[in-house]
Design goal:
By secondary structure, the chain is an alpha+beta fold. It contains 4 helices and 10 strands; from the N terminus they run H-E-H-H-E-E-E-E-E-E-E-H-E-E. About 25% of the residues lie in helices and about 40% in strands. It has an 8-stranded antiparallel beta sheet, with helices on both faces.
Length: about 180
């Protein structure tokens, strides 16, 4: 299922969403070079919530409900994190979208992320997934997440890379900046 063509692209929505990113620490940046796929095709894969379980290792299932439009929240059931609601704040296909994630058992309390696709030519480019946050509930989770999130994310982007004609993957993480106990 692909999301509808609705765009949440007005300048105020973008400015507001980018301000939320800037207010947090960039914790992980995944980068996947791709070829044999257009930027639009890659964006369609990343922008389709139903495809999350195809590539993200901890995602068990996705409930879309009435989430066919980009501005409607959907729920992802994650191993370790339970049900997490994701909500798009800015949607500008095939270039980027910014979203938040929240859940009762989700230890990251201020999770914000951006997916962006940079076109190099008609059938190649670079996909970026940038994850921003500062607040994690509980000392145990503050110690555990910096250990498990980078390798899980790296394995997930390797899996994603196979789906989008990936040529090179990288992940940079920053858990040196102190986390806040939420």
């Amino acid at each position: 299922m692909t999301r509808s063509a609705l765009k949440i692209e007005n300048k105020e929505a973008e400015r507001s969403a980018r301000a939320l990113l800037a207010a947090r620490t960039l914790r992980m940046e995944a980068k996947v070079g791709f070829s044999s796929y257009s930027a639009g095709q890659v964006f369609d894969i990343m922008g389709d919530p139903a495809r999350i379980t195809d590539w993200y290792l901890l995602a068990k299932s996705v409930r879309l409900g009435n989430a066919a439009a980009a501005d409607q929240p959907f729920v992802v059931d994650f191993t370790l994190f339970g049900e997490v609601t994701e909500q798009v704040l800015f949607w500008d296909p095939p270039r980027s979208y910014i979203y938040i994630a929240r859940g009762e058992d989700f230890p990251i309390k201020d999770y914000h992320a951006e997916i962006s696709v940079e076109k190099k030519d008609a059938d190649s480019g670079v996909l970026f997934w940038r994850v921003y946050f500062d607040q994690i509930s509980g000392a145990h989770q503050q110690n555990l997440l910096p250990i498990i999130l980078p390798p899980v994310t790296e394995a997930s982007i390797q899996r994603l890379s196979q789906m989008i004609g990936g040529t090179k993957c990288s992940l940079v993480s920053d858990f040196e900046t102190p986390l806040i106990n939420a």
